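User: quick one, sequence for these tokens?
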């Protein structure tokens, strides 16, 4: 393909991300959905080499997740995190278990797959997508406590998705895996991520002070974040959790330096720069995700995908009622990033029905985002504009201490 055409196309795609953001403000339909559909169209008309795109899926998803979760950490407040942590884990666990059971039942009865493969699909599609949900709740003007709860909940269910799905895959492949080892792996993912994120965070809070006034200090922070994500994942922890903790410590560095009797630092400008970087990466990621989606011709997969999307909504409603969290949390059902990555891994592992699972995941990603967009559209939510603090909002954002 001509280099000049690629440059023009790349620029137009960034414009499409900006336009999708504007459309979200006007229609309340998630910008991710517009970009996914545009990516699918670009693939359909032959502007994207799908096989080469699939080969870099792991890199693209990790980069998108790392930048989005890091931004979420920068914007979290320690007090809100402590308040939200326990209910977030409880809600994540209940929502995931209900979703996995209901979705597994749909697969078993509609697609007639064996019980273990049905459960595998249930765990694969049992959580919400951090990469989609976290930016949306920011733009909808949720309060900081709600954002903290949703961020922790979605990150937790993403961990559940990966760990339990791959553990069941090992069982299907006759490898050694038990429910106990899966639970241990979940705790390991969390603990390693928290410890490494905390160590890097403490180190870098000191580093920011020494780098103050120097050029390219943000780029060093970004590179440190990427190293942390990769290192944590390499040693068996959750890269998303470690980056979340890292961002949390930088975002609360004023309080942290006061507590530890360290000189004050002012990393606020990092957030502004990182938001621009995140916008660019999110735009390309969702265009990329749309380009690799494959819609099946088998009608039974369509029936199953519709029921799975509806049952995902039902499962979250059950968790909301059980744990008495805000009822609008039940709408947050979009699937996207981790589900796609794990579905590709299942094909590579040689799991039975692997290609059908990927097509089913593609359909659920599209339908769950459509349903979510429709629910937001008909609800009374509206995006907060700068300086707007109307009581009609979900809740007003609290400002961090200066």
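Assistant:
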């Amino acid at each position: 393909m001509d280099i000049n055409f690629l440059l023009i196309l790349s620029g137009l795609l960034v414009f499409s991300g900006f336009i999708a953001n504007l459309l979200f403000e006007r229609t309340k339909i998630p910008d991710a959905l517009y970009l996914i559909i545009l990516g699918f169209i670009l693939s359909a008309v032959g502007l994207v080499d799908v096989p080469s795109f699939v080969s870099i899926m792991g890199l693209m998803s990790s980069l998108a997740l790392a930048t989005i979760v890091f931004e979420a950490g920068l914007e979290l407040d320690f007090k809100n995190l402590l308040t939200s942590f326990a209910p977030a884990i409880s809600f994540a666990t209940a929502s995931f278990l209900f979703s996995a059971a209901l979705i597994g039942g749909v697969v078993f009865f509609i697609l007639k797959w064996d019980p273990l493969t049905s459960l595998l699909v249930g765990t694969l599609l049992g959580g919400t997508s951090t990469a989609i949900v976290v930016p949306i709740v920011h733009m909808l003007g949720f309060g900081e406590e709600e954002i903290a709860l949703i961020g922790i909940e979605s990150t937790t269910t993403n961990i559940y998705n990966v760990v339990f799905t791959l553990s069941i895959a090992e069982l299907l492949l006759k490898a050694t895996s038990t429910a106990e080892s899966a639970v241990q792996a979940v705790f390991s993912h969390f603990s390693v991520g928290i410890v490494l994120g905390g160590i890097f965070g403490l180190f870098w809070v000191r580093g920011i002070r020494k780098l103050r006034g120097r050029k390219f200090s943000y780029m060093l922070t970004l590179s440190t974040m990427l190293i942390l994500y990769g290192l944590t994942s390499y040693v068996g922890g959750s890269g998303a959790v470690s980056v979340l903790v890292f961002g949390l410590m930088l975002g609360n560095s004023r309080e942290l330096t006061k507590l530890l009797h360290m000189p004050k630092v002012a990393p606020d400008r990092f957030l502004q720069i990182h938001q621009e970087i995140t916008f660019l990466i999110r735009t390309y990621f969702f265009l990329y995700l749309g380009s690799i989606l494959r819609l099946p011709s088998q009608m039974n997969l369509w029936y199953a995908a519709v029921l799975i999307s509806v049952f995902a909504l039902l499962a979250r409603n059950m968790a909301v009622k059980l744990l008495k969290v805000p009822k609008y949390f039940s709408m947050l059902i979009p699937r996207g990033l981790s589900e796609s990555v794990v579905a590709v891994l299942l094909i590579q592992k040689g799991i039975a029905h692997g290609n059908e699972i990927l097509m089913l995941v593609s359909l659920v990603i599209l339908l769950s985002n459509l349903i979510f967009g429709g629910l937001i559209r008909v609800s009374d939510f509206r995006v907060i504009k700068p300086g707007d603090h109307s009581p009609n909002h979900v809740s007003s954002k609290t400002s961090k201490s200066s």
